[in-house]
Specification:
706 residues; 14% strand; Rossmann fold; alpha/beta
């Protein structure tokens, strides 16, 4: 239960915030503060600060305009400070991170009077690695990195690359730049930046001669001082995959706030997905053997290292032989199933044929032996870097360690994928989706084997919900068809965790009209429907000042665009032609200049797009946002639901479409002053039974159904 002192602290902070900002209390915001504070305040802990009881996870859906960001900050920070915990706010988009750092958190300090230190945490890949840059410049005549796949072109350092690396070193040495990629005035091309950064497999940490001036570790030292850390979902998941506490504070000492929480499931399954290209991996093994022999030659056949490398010969040969058998069997199994250069075949219910499972087991066993040998070598090199081995010079270890780290990371990915194919899923439990794709690359056709969990539930239960001190999951759209069931199942949230919905204060009925015009066709006949879309937009767009058209596929969008005359195309900004942020910038600029502007976009423009007022007055949705029917993860999950005697269309497909439709329509009204129209060009919304469910879950827009 929330104690009175903490309750007064939160109330006083909220009162001060409203007074200093000249605002009136919003009902939804006030209720959300109370809900989050009540959950966090009810957590029991022992004398050591270890959570010992109470519900520690809170789920809140807060509609646009509720003020949810300030609500969860006002509720969580005082609790964390009283209990000596850290707060990690994880978002899915850069835009929300910037809003937190540049607007919301400064207001929490200045207007609410909360004494708080905070900052933005980024992954290692966003920071300059002095040692890697220096090494690349010293070895200009050698390969600067080992390509992950053979179709990733390995190249010498060009003169422009050398100049770029020298410039980065100079900028950092002069103090003009702090080593954060996002702080550079000029954009550095990705291939060059990869040469100038590092990852946890290559970094020698405190053993590095540049450790004391390393941009990443200097940023890490600052992070340790902060009360609140802003991060993204990927960074939190990366930290958890390393055991927690490797990058961010330990989970048991952390209150996590997952804003844009509807992304967490997809981010998690993506983070624990694996892939393996067979032909490329076989070639890479041969290349790795040559690279190791070259390193030995350059190291004057150092006896200790040579002995370790020699022990790799047998497991390397076994691994290569097993991969060749895998490739041959896969070609035989899929000869009549993969047609064309980029076709895909999914194993029904994620079940691998017995013969392939056996070969995968052989690959996994040999890969595991190789990984263990590499780990021994890496540990040996660490000792050498620490100066603990007289017969292993430090400079030799500095040369070997990063390259061994890259090789080890690749070998681990081979092992993880092979293990996924070799082990059957637990009977009755959630399956793993497994599929193969024929890839047409520079080296010819290759077969890529892929696997992904169909649900984040088990992973999040084990690595996040159980060990964390507390968590808040929030977003403007968390419910599906008005219920939290799908979210709880997808994320593995304990069933007893409290949840609440705080409605938006917007006057939807007067501010926006939802229109479904009469149409001759529906998406069941895609060719006719696409042509009718083109005809509709050809007539509609000349009168539009600020519109967003959301398409269901690249093919549909490109088809419609090709039907538009040049006069209309001149006013259209098309996803894929420019970066998303640049499209939004140019759109705003056009509207500011009183020029018409229309955005053609796909699913990524259906959320996270904030165009208030005159920047957006009409949202046009071409089709109900059902998932792609042949998506391997969704299809595997649907099969599993059917095997359990459940209805995947009702349990999975419709709820997901409901969430996506709510997000898409939500692009229109961003402030209480906004108004406009939403047009849905899919008659199934009013002709099919499920349309009533989708309509009931939407805000109460004014309706106009022809």
């Amino acid at each position: 239960m929330l104690d009175q002192q903490l309750k007064r602290t939160i109330q006083d902070a909220y009162t001060a915030f409203l007074s200093n900002r000249g605002l009136k209390a919003r009902y939804g915001q006030k209720m959300m503060i109370a809900e989050v504070a009540r959950t966090l305040g009810s957590i029991d802990q022992d004398s050591e600060g270890v959570r010992s009881g109470g519900q520690h996870i809170c789920v809140t859906e807060a509609g646009t305009g509720t003020g949810k960001t300030m609500a969860y900050l006002l509720a969580s920070v005082p609790v964390a400070q009283q209990r000596k915990k850290k707060v990690v706010v994880a978002t899915a988009t850069v835009a929300l991170q910037e809003q937190l750092i540049l607007k919301d958190l400064p207001q929490l300090v200045s207007s609410a009077g909360v004494n708080l230190t905070y900052g933005l945490a980024k992954g290692r890949g966003r920071y300059f690695c002095i040692s890697n840059a220096e090494k690349m410049l010293e070895q200009q005549n050698e390969l600067g990195q080992i390509a992950l796949y053979e179709d990733e072109v390995a190249r010498q350092l060009e003169s422009a690359d050398v100049a770029e690396l020298k410039s980065l070193l100079s900028l950092y040495a002069s103090g003009e730049w702090d080593g954060d990629r996002d702080g550079l005035k000029e954009t550095v091309p990705d291939p060059v930046w990869r040469l100038a950064t590092s990852d946890h497999m290559q970094c020698t940490n405190r053993r590095c001669s540049n450790f004391s001036i390393c941009p990443f570790f200097k940023a890490r030292q600052e992070l340790d001082k902060w009360d609140l850390i802003v991060a993204n979902h990927d960074l939190v998941l990366a930290d958890l995959s390393l055991g927690g506490g490797a990058i961010l504070p330990p989970p048991e000492d952390t209150i996590y706030i997952f804003d844009e929480g509807h992304h967490l499931g997809g981010k998690t399954t993506g983070h624990f997905s694996y892939s393996l290209r067979l032909k490329s991996s076989i070639r890479w093994l041969a290349k790795t053997t040559r690279s190791l022999n070259k390193l030995l030659t350059e190291s004057a056949e150092h006896m200790v290292l040579r002995n370790y490398i020699e022990t790799l010969a047998t497991p390397f040969a076994d691994m290569e032989h097993s991969l060749q058998e895998w490739q041959l069997l896969m070609q035989q199994l899929l000869e009549d199933k993969l047609q064309g250069p980029s076709d895909r075949y999914r194993f029904a219910q994620g079940m691998i044929p017995e013969a392939l499972q056996l070969i995968s087991h052989n690959v996994a066993n040999s890969a595991e032996r190789v990984v263990l040998k590499f780990e021994q070598i890496v540990d040996l090199l660490k000792e050498g870097l620490d100066g603990e081995l007289a017969d292993l010079p430090r400079d030799l270890c500095e040369k070997w360690y990063p390259q061994m780290g890259v090789m080890l990371a690749r070998l681990q990915s081979v092992f993880w994928l092979a293990r996924s194919y070799s082990v059957a899923d637990q009977a009755g439990g959630l399956p793993t989706a497994r599929w193969v794709v024929k890839v047409d690359g520079p080296e010819g056709l290759d077969i890529e084997c892929c696997s992904s969990p169909v649900s984040a539930a088990d992973t999040l239960q084990e690595h996040l919900w159980k060990p964390c001190y507390a968590a808040v999951i929030t977003s403007a759209t968390l419910t599906a068809l008005g219920r939290f069931d799908r979210l709880y199942a997808d994320l593995g949230i304990p069933a007893e965790s409290p949840n609440a919905v705080f409605a938006s204060p917007f006057d939807f009925a007067n501010a926006a009209e939802l229109r479904v015009p009469a149409m001759r066709s529906d998406p069941g006949n895609p060719d006719a429907h696409n042509q009718e879309l083109a005809d509709y937009l050809l007539a509609q767009l000349p009168g539009e000042q600020a519109a967003l058209v959301l398409f269901s596929s690249w093919r549909q969008m490109r088809y419609v665009l090709e039907q538009m005359p040049d006069k209309i195309v001149a006013d259209i900004l098309v996803q894929g032609d420019l970066a998303k942020h640049e499209i939004l910038r140019q759109h705003r600029q056009r509207i500011d200049e009183q020029k018409p502007s229309v955005i053609f976009g796909l699913a990524s423009f259906a959320e996270g797009v904030d165009l208030p007022g005159s920047y957006l007055t009409h949202v046009i949705i071409t089709k109900l946002p059902f998932g792609v029917p042949d998506d391997p993860v969704d299809a595997t999950y649907s099969e599993w639901l059917e095997s359990q005697g459940r209805n995947p269309f009702q349990e999975w497909v419709i709820p997901l479409a409901s969430m996506r439709l709510t997000q898409a329509t939500g692009r229109l009204l961003r402030t209480e002053q906004d108004e406009g129209r939403i047009t849905l060009l899919d008659r199934r919304f009013i002709t099919r039974r499920y349309g009533k469910q989708l309509l009931a879950a939407l805000p109460p827009y004014r309706r106009n159904f022809s």
